[in-house]
Every structure is written in structure tokens, then in C-alpha cells.
Amino acid sequence: MMTKSSKNIDDTHFLSGHLLVAMPGMADERFDRAVIYLCAHSADGAMGIIVNQPTNAVRFADLLVQLDVVADDDATDLSDKAADVPVIQGGPVETGRGFVLHSADYFVDSSTLPIDSGISLTATVDILRAIAEGRGPDRAVLALGYAGWAAGQLETEMQANGWLHCAADDAIVFDQALDTKYDRALRKIGIDPVMLSSEAGHA
User: Fold this and answer.
1) Which of 57, 88, 175, 197 is most buried, judged by most C-beta within 10 A?
2) Rounded Cα distance, 82 and 106, in Å
3) What would the pLDDT profile of 63-78 be if each residue is shown by its tens digit?
4) DSSP class of residue 139?
């Protein structure tokens, strides 16, 4: 069941700024039902952030305290926008490192990577401080770790029908309804999640 938006990568340009959606039966359980925002994809490999896997009750305010961005006493006084920044498990690589996906209204020279017209990536403590002080981007999500592929690895996995892909959707990337992102991404591709699960079960 291939659609125009999920055709083989050989027929497309590189997929930076797109969503990867794991197929049912994904062999690597770390990516079961994963929706990944691809931050970089080239002939040298790929890097992305899983946007629908929760952390174990890690709060943004607690991380700010742990990183000495704010004092413990100030953590309860964060703005509503800062307090609501989701913290997600971004992938199995460098899980102790934070990566902030955010709207493009925030930019720091030599620190921020623009990915497409609306989404950027920053991985320095400066953006955490800016968010805490109310100077940060309008929308943001903090990911712990990332997903990475060596040269040619992602292409091989896609040709083996491990992944579908589609254009990114800001709501899927940024909102806190993590448990619905997989089904929403499939519907964006044009696939009924119930039908896909049924077909996978009878393969």
C-alpha cells in the first residue's frame, strides 16, 4: 500500500524536514510506532528526533534546575509557555544530551540549524535560558537523545518497507498529544491506521 507521499526514497530528494513513520512490524523495538522528524538527511547519513515517545515523567522545569539554568526556587515561577514545553525521548543516541526542536522565530548564529521554513534545531543551553526567561521561540519541544543512520542505512531501511514518509506537520512535531501522533501521521500519508494494522497482521 504505497502512496505518492510514501514512495521510495530513490524517487525523491533527501528528506530533511519530513516525517518518518515506522511501519507495523518494525524489527527494532526502539522505533515501534515511532514518528521521527528528520533534521538532516544527505548522502553522508541522517539524523532525526522521535517526536512521540515520552520520557519517564521528566519535567522541563526540573531539567532547567539540573542544568543550573534556573535556581530551584525559581522553577515554580516559569511562564506558562516555558512550563508547558514537552520533554520527549528523542532517540537512542546520546540520550543524556538535549536537543530543542522549535519554531523558526528563534535563531542564534552558529548554534541554530534551520531545517525548513518553519522549524529549526538548537542544542545549546542558551535556548533553554531564553525559554525560561520568556525570550524563546513560540513553540518548542525538548528531546533527550536522537536517532541516527550511517550513509545509506536509512535508504536501505526504507526500501525494505521499514518506514513511510510525508511532509512535516507543526502540530505533530510540537503538540503534547504524543499518543495520537502515530495515527495522525499515517492519516496525513493517506492511510487508515486500522487497515494498516489489519494488513500487517495477515502478512
Assistant:
1) 88
2) 14
3) 888 888 888 777 666 7
4) S
Structural domain harbouring 175: 4-52+148-201
- Enumerate residues 6+ apart whose C-beta is below 8 A from 161: 23
pTM score of the predicted model? 0.87
The rounded distance, in Å, linking the Cα atoms of 134 and 132 is 6
* Whether residue 21 sits in one domain with residue 67: no
Q: Kindly tell me the burial class for residue 203, based on how many C-beta atoms sit within 10 Å of its own C-beta (0-12, 13-18, 19 or more).
A: exposed
Report the CATH number that the domain containing residue 23 is assigned in CATH: 3.40.1740.10
Task: Give the number of other CB atoms < 10 A from CB of residue 31.
Answer: 21
Number of residues that make up the chain = 203
User: Of 80, 88, 189, which Cα lies nearest the Cα of 138?
Assistant: 80
- pLDDT single digits (tens) 87-98: 999 999 999 899
Question: What is the per-residue pLDDT across 82-124, written as a single tens digit (0 to 9) for each?
Answer: 878 999 999 999 998 999 999 999 999 999 999 988 999 999 9
Same domain as 166, residue 135: no
